[in-house]
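Troubleshooting entry. The earlier prediction with uridine-5'-diphosphate gave an output that would not parse, so I re-checked the input for stray whitespace and re-submitted. Clean input:
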Amino acid sequence: MKVVTIIGARPQFIKAAPVSRELRKSFDEIIVHTGQHYDKNMSDIFFDELNIPKPDYHLNVGSSSHGKQTGEMLAAIEEVLVKEEPAYVLVYGDTNSTLAGALAASKMHIPVIHIEAGLRSFNKKMPEEVNRIMTDHVSEYLFCPTDTAIQNLKNENVTHNVFNVGDVMYDAVMYNQKLATDSKILEQHSLESKGYHLVTLHRAENTDFPEKMQNILDAFKQIDKTLVWPIHPRTKHKLEGYGINLEDVPNLKVIEPVGYLDMLRLESEAEKILTDSGGVQKEAYFLQIPCVTLREETEWIETVQNKGNILVGSDTKKILEAVNSEYTSAYEPAFGDGDSAKHLVDHLKK
Ligand code: UD1
Ligand code: UDP
């Protein structure tokens, strides 16, 4: 049976690695790369190091406004679906690539499989929240990573074919954690274990507002430790546009985005992780590194409930308080058993 998988952004490549490995044991998979992310270190690097099968179709959609980007993907995905006539279309998470894939398929009456279904921030100003709600409501199979996600869907009366299979990002960490110990990223940047905090920032809710970015950088300046920051291209471009120069923050070590294995090593050896990324919040929790989340709310509420994560938004004082306080998560296995990909494929085989 044929499954067309739609991916396009960095976290989707990482999620696809464990799922494709498992899916291909029982299904014929066709991979479509929308081209939402296209720099080598935002795309190709993950295919190479995680052994993800090369895309069968590359749509080369690239960057643009939400409507244009999603619309171009929608039209191009439809053409692929007409040609391939798959039994299912599989989408991950909450990006514009996810929404385009789900919409194209559902209009053609092809059942949609949504992996990482049911997440909610309850903030509809986030583009991701709109993408998630729309995708969940047109999907046929909804694979949730947590009980909270199941409950969110119940609250919206979505209960058919909804399963908690755990989080495929936990599978990815379990599979790659040991391989990541061979990474030389610390040595390359003369870093010592626990001698730095790790930063990632890319959410529109921060990067679209120069005053929020300035508040965050004001906090960074006052932190008495090196901050290693593999900078997302969106953030780099935005800061350039605002005329904000990161060289004004002397303890910042800004580096290019890194591959997944280097990232896992950077996360594992950091003292704390400061981020607005969904995936990085979870990885901090899996690796038991205290996390400071530069957002007002999180979909990954279990990381906060289990005391591994503090929400601080872009408030300078709150960021400093969280960075200077002591806490480590009392790890509770809230994200499955590391075999989520197998569980979800087992459901599809039934
Ligand atoms: C997208 C997702 C977000 C996800 C993130 C993962 C949407 C609405 N957002 O955000 O949910 O958390 O990916 O990283 O789908 N750019 C480059 N090179 C690239 C990719 C992007 O230079 O390879 C720059 C361009 O200036 C582009 C900007 O980044 O305009 C934003 O890219 P886009 O894919 O639209 O959104 P992200 O912010 O990456
Ligand atoms: N990541 C990476 N290199 C980097 C930054 C992040 O490999 O330089 C990985 C990170 O470990 C996680 C995923 O990318 O697995 C998270 O993606 P991102 O933060 O772009 O998106 P989000 O999860 O917020 O949607």
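This one parsed fine. The two ends are 13 Å apart (CA to CA).
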